[in-house]
């Protein structure tokens, strides 16, 4: 068993995938010699050459559009969008072209493309570098959207995403890039399975990506007060692992969903609706959601008040217990 | 205190004004006679006859498409009338193995690549989003988001560049689409990466109701040169000139010269689509002047001048009639899709939401049918 | 001669009508495919329409200046003698159907699934007037036949589970088998006009139960043996388990321990778990026990079974029993739960009685009923003592099971229940 940072786990996963399959290529801004602004692609160009790992011009729409062309030619591109807030210029290429081309061509065209996006806040960054935009892509038929939270998941999920013949939006929690944790040799879950990180009989907190750690911290605090709070790491935002969510919700009867994205119109709403429909008679309280406020992301100095933190999660847990 | 003179001559050494257009290459004049360049280049009668045939067939395919729309058999048709030479001349100069990325008006080019009228009609009838598969005839499906295909073509060309092949990739788009960000990204990208990509722009003078004078500040071929690639300007209604220029551009790319750009001057003789009313924004004079420069009548005149017999022209007309009949029959017999089947084409691998919803749809439908 | 109809198409992606500007043909004219027949003006532009047919114009169906709805008949063309009829048939071309919207928008019915405005308002009024209760409590009330509206609080605070249970006259500690609410209308003293008889239809679970009982009674020759058992030790074990940390949160009941004893007994005497296959003329020995448990549910008497009960540890058996009862109470028992049973147990003690002659569940060879546990005088080592005593009633199919086997089973059950340590003897 190895112990490494989430960023290094991604690097190792990419490396492994590229060794396994010649068709896998890595492309994006500054991914070559620099190895990516977060060093996720560090050393890959040296190993695999500038044909397979190359820097693109500064054009996000271009990155995704040319990736589509490369996929049409038989390659399996892994694109990096440098920061979440800069995916928007590529939005049309992602939702109108990438997501739809299989359906538009009656199944004739496959676009096995992975779009890696460092996501989320909490790093004191300037504007447009702390967004959480998974809801837009989760809502787009034809895309798969996943979100890793640990080194082990990062390592296995990036490989699984690359192996998928469908387009995958792959979110990486940038505030966790430098955190170390254990990596297991074998993958314990499929790409779209949720992980029950912690069992709990009083309440279940559902999170993904950067908020998994927040949820665990809240569960620890709740335990000290005598409450058994479970945590589910979604891992896959679209499709959702409804089976696991149902099981956990039916057991505890109380669910709190936590995500960095704004609460309104976030994926928490989809989860709440699905769980309520499936587990109506088992629920002791409505499904509560804890997300960011419905504001454009604020300046760094106040982001801690803006993002869901342990206190707000505990508040929500308290509220569900009060029902 | 000194003030810099506003127009000091030494600044001019580091100053450049945008350039005006080059003269477009023309081998055959509108009346069918050869120009000076045309005489120098010479005419291959066999090639010319073959290109003429394709133009006539393509024109007929297009007019039949419009008729079918007017008869309620297609919900929409976008006319390629007037642009036959630009499409035939270019695609016939490429190799069958060169991958082509069209926009949505290249019915004549598609036909030249062996795509059938029924396959072309399918998406306009509303029974599919594309009637053909891209791989076998090396002709990608139509793209309705303007200019998006230029980036796909650039990506494809990137892949070609990684192989030993001397294939090139060609992408079609119009004067309006050239204003889109994606097209300009593709131009820059291809030049930066020296991709084996041919940008073929059919400047048909109009983007729905917006003339080129309001669409851009510099001639398209000059813009492309500004991005850093070899650019050509050609009379897009002169099929022999288009063919020659495309040949030259393709050779340039194949020999490692990087991407190339061809601006073909042509005219959209009909409206933008069957829903458009061009009379609201174009003058009759303008339309009439372009009729005089028609690509098909021009070639007919040339060929007759070369002594091609009536029999040939009669045979071409018969072939066109045959194609029209086939198109009508094929269009009317296009099968309606079943929504149930569409669930299978969203993802390559099983997806729980799709599986569940397909089931719900079938159950709902059955309940309505009292099954 | 065939007549072809051409209906006004939608030529502009969503147009609904067009005005006839000029006809280019007249009745009697010969037309070829794609000849222009008419000019029409739409909201977008003036458009020429080409003819889809060749032949002779039979009739024009509109006048210059007239506005026609999309889809209306425009022109009819007859075959000309020399030309064969072209492919299209007389019915309107398919895409016109697709393109044509409902021609009279006012007449278009509301397509939205759900309620039209008036209905929605009424529903809203009803909803806001409902008593408030959590979903599970609401479900319980429904199951127990309790009208929540009668329990509604003045301050609209949610009605509790306890309130519902009290209203149902149900003691929360009662064992698994729940008394089913009587079907049909109960006679109510407040009814003004009481009928001399009320009728309720024979259907659903009641019918199923009736059929099963009839089939069972008239197929298998039933014999019932009785045995009185000192179950003091088992009741002590029950008390101990309730205190056990590992068993906190689990429902520990007499039914559980008797069921376990029965499962152990079938290991030693598999004959009572056999099945008489009349059709194949064979006796089937099962390598498993699917233990049926009689449960009175809101739908009536159900006998769902626990699959592979023989392999379950006591804690697993407890959980399975819990789930089975919960499901039955909430009306969620599935058909699959009710088939495949091999032996059944029924707690008639919960009904307050001691013994009975239960009918076999069809397809099974034995059913064990046990009665209320009562304190009774008993003799131990020559002394009169007070012990906890219950009756076991074992009915069996005398085609398969004879008195000797039946008695042996009851004896073994008694042995285990009077001294649970005997379970140690089992594998």
What characterizes the major β-sheet of chain C?
7 strands, mixed
Average pLDDT of chain C, rounded to a whole number, is: 81
**CATH architecture classification of the largest domain in chain C:** 2-Layer Sandwich
Percent strand of chain C? 15-25%
For the biggest sheet of chain A, the summary is: 7 strands, mixed
The greatest interface here is:
A-B, 44 and 40 residues
List the strand order in the largest sheet of chain A: 3-2-4-5-7-6-12
SSE pattern of chain C: EEEEEEEEHHHHHHEHHEEEEEEHEEEEH
Within CATH, the superfamily of the largest domain in chain C carries the name Chloramphenicol acetyltransferase-like domain
Average pLDDT of chain A, rounded to a whole number, is 96
DSSP E strands of chain C, number: 19
Q: Portion of residues in helices of chain C? A: 25-40%
Order of helices and strands of chain A: EHEHEHEHHEHEHEEEEHEEHEHEHH
Task: Name the shape of chain A in a single word.
Answer: globular
What's a concise summary of this model?
Chain A has 323 residues and is an alpha/beta fold.
Tell me what you see in this structure.
- The complex is a heterotrimer of chains A (323), B (371) and C (427).
- With 323 residues, chain A is α/β, with parallel strands linked by helices.
- Chain A has helices at residues 6-20, 44-48, 60-72, 91-98, 101-104, 134-138, 151-163, 211-224, 242-252, 267-279, 303-306, 310-322, and strands spanning 2-5, 24-28, 53-55, 76-80, 114-119, 144-147, 168-173, 180-183, 195-198, 203-207, 229-233, 236-238, 255-262, 288-292.
- Chain A is built from twelve helices and 14 strands.
- Chain A has a seven-stranded mixed β-sheet, with helices on both faces. Chain A has a five-stranded mixed β-sheet with strand order 9-11-10-13-14, sandwiched between helices.
- In chain A, helix 1 (6-20) runs parallel beside helix 7 (151-163).
- Chain A has two domains: 2-183, 3-Layer(aba) Sandwich (Rossmann fold), CATH 3.40.50.970; 195-322, Rossmann fold (3-Layer(aba) Sandwich), CATH 3.40.50.
- Chain B is an alpha/beta fold and 371 residues long.
- Chain B has two domains: 19-337, Rossmann fold; 338-371.
- Chain B is globular and about 85 Å long.
- Chain C folds into three domains: 3-106, Beta Barrel (OB fold (Dihydrolipoamide Acetyltransferase, E2P)); 117-167, no CATH class; 204-425, Chloramphenicol acetyltransferase-like domain (Chloramphenicol Acetyltransferase), CATH 3.30.559.
- In chain C, strands 9, 12, 15, 16, 17, 18 and 19 form a seven-stranded mixed β-sheet that branches. Chain C has a four-stranded antiparallel β-sheet with strand order 1-8-6-3, with no helix packed on it.
- In chain C, helix 8 (254-268) crosses helix 10 (403-418).
- Chain C is elongated, with a radius of gyration of 38 Å.
- The termini of chain C are far apart.
- At the A-B interface, helix 3, helix 4 and helix 5 of A face helix 7 and helix 8 of B.
């Amino acid at each position: 068993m190895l112990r490494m940072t989430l960023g290094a786990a991604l690097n190792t996963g990419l490396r492994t995938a590229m060794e396994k399959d010649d068709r896998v290529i890595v492309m994006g801004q500054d991914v070559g010699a620099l190895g990516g602004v977060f060093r996720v692609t560090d050393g890959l160009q040296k190993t695999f050459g500038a044909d397979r790992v190359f820097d693109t011009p500064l054009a996000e729409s271009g990155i995704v559009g040319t990736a589509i062309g490369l996929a049409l030619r038989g390659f399996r591109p892994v694109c990096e969008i440098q920061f979440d807030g800069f995916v928007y210029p590529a939005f049309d290429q992602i939702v109108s072209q990438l997501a739809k081309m299989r359906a538009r061509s009656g199944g004739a065209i496959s676009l096995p493309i992975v779009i890696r996006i460092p996501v989320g806040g909490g790093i004191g960054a300037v504007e447009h570098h702390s967004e959480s935009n998974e809801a837009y892509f989760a809502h787009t038929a034809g895309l798969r959207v996943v979100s890793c939270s640990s080194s082990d998941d990062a390592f296995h999920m990036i490989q699984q995403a690359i192996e998928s013949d469908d387009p995958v939006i792959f979110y990486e929690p940038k505030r966790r890039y430098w955190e170390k944790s254990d990596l297991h040799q074998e993958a314990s879950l499929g790409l779209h399975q949720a992980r029950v990180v912690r069992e709990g009989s009083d309440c279940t907190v559902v999170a993904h990506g950067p908020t998994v750690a927040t949820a665990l911290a809240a569960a620890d605090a709740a335990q000290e007060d005598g409450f058994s709070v479970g945590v589910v790491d979604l891992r896959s935002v679209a499709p959702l692992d409804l089976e696991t969510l149902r099981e956990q919700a039916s057991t505890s009867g109380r669910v709190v969903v936590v995500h960095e994205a704004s609460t309104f119109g976030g994926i928490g709403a989809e989860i709440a609706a699905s769980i309520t429909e499936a587990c109506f008679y088992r629920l002791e309280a409505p499904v509560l959601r804890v997300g960011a406020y419905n504001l454009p992301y604020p300046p760094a100095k106040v982001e801690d008040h803006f993002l869901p933190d342990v206190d707000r999660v505990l508040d929500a847990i308290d509220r569900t217990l009060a029902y | 205190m000194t003030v810099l003179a506003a127009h000091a001559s030494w600044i001019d050494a580091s100053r450049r004004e945008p350039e005006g257009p080059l003269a477009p290459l023309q081998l055959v004049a509108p009346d069918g006679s050869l120009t000076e360049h045309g005489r120098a280049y010479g005419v291959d009668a066999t090639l010319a006859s073959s290109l003429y045939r394709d133009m006539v067939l393509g024109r007929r395919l297009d007019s039949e498409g419009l008729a079918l729309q007017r008869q309620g058999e297609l919900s929409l048709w976008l006319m390629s009338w007037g642009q036959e030479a630009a499409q035939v001349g270019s695609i016939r100069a490429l190799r069958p193995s060169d991958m082509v990325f069209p926009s949505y008006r290249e019915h004549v080019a598609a036909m030249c690549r062996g795509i059938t009228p029924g396959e072309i009609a399918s998406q306009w009838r509303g029974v599919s989003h594309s009637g053909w598969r891209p791989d076998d005839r090396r002709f990608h499906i139509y793209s309705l988001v303007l200019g998006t295909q230029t980036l796909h073509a650039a990506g494809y060309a990137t892949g070609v560049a990684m192989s030993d092949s001397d294939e090139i990739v060609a992408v079609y788009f119009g004067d309006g689409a050239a204003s889109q960000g994606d097209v300009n990204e593709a131009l820059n990208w291809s030049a930066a990466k020296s991709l084996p990509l041919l940008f073929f722009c059919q400047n048909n003078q109009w983007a729905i109701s917006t003339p080129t004078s309001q669409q851009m500040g510099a001639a398209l071929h000059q813009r492309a040169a500004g991005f850093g690639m070899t650019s050509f300007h050609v009379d897009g209604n002169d099929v022999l000139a288009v063919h020659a220029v495309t040949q030259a551009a393709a050779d340039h790319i194949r020999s490692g010269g990087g991407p190339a750009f061809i601006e073909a001057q042509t005219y959209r003789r009909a409206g933008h689509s069957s829903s458009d009313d061009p009379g609201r924004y174009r003058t009759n004079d303008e339309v009439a002047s372009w009729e005089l420069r028609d690509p098909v009548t021009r070639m007919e005149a040339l060929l007759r001048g070369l002594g091609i017999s009536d029999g040939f022209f009669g045979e071409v007309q018969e072939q066109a009639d045959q194609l029209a009949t086939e198109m009508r029959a094929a269009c009317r017999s296009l099968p309606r899709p079943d929504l149930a089947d569409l669930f299978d084409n969203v993802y390559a691998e099983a997806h729980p939401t799709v599986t569940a919803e397909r089931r719900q749809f079938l159950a709902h439908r059955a309940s309505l049918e009292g099954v | 001669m065939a007549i072809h109809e051409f209906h006004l198409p939608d030529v502009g992606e969503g147009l609904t009508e067009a005005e006839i500007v000029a006809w280019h043909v007249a009745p009697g004219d010969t037309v070829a495919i794609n000849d222009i027949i008419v000019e029409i003006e739409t909201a977008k532009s003036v458009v020429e329409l080409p003819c889809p047919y060749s032949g002779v114009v039979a009739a024009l169906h509109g006048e210059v200046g007239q506005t026609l709805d999309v889809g209306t008949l425009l022109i009819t063309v007859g075959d000309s003698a020399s030309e064969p009829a072209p492919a299209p048939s007389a019915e309107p071309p398919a895409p016109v159907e697709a393109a044509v919207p409902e021609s009279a928008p006012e007449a278009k019915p509301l397509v939205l699934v759900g309620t039209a405005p008036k209905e929605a308002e009424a529903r809203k009024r009803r909803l806001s007037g409902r008593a408030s209760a959590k979903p599970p409590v609401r479900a319980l009330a429904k199951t127990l036949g309790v009208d929540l509206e009668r329990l509604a609080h003045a301050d609209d605070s949610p009605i509790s589970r306890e309130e519902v249970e009290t209203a149902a006259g149900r003691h929360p500690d009662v064992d698994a088998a729940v008394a089913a609410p009587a079907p049909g209308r109960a006679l109510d003293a407040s009814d003004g006009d009481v009928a001399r008889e009320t009728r309720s239809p024979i259907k659903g679970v009641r019918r199923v139960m009736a059929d099963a009982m009839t089939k069972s009674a008239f197929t298998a020759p039933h014999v019932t043996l009785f045995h009185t058992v000192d179950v003091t030790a088992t009741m002590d074990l029950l008390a101990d388990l309730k205190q056990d940390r590992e068993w906190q949160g689990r429902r520990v009941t007499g039914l559980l321990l008797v069921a376990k004893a029965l499962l152990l007994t079938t290991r030693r005497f598999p004959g009572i778990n056999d099945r008489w296959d009349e059709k194949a003329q064979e006796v089937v020995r099962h390598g498993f026990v699917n233990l049926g448990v009689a449960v009175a549910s809101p739908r009536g008497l159900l006998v769902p079974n626990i699959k592979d009960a023989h392999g379950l540890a006591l804690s697993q058996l407890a959980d399975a029993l819990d789930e089975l009862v919960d499901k039955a109470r909430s009306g969620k028992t599935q058909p699959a739960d009710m088939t495949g049973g091999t032996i059944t147990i029924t707690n008639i003690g919960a009904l307050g009685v001691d013994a009975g002659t239960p009918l076999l569940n069809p397809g099974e060879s034995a059913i064990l009923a046990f009665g209320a546990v009562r304190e009774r005088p008993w003799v131990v080592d020559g002394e009169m003592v007070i012990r906890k005593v219950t009756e076991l009633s074992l009915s069996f199919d005398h085609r398969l099971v004879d008195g000797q086997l039946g008695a042996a089973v009851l004896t073994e059950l008694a042995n285990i229940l009077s001294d649970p340590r005997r379970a140690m003897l089992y594998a």
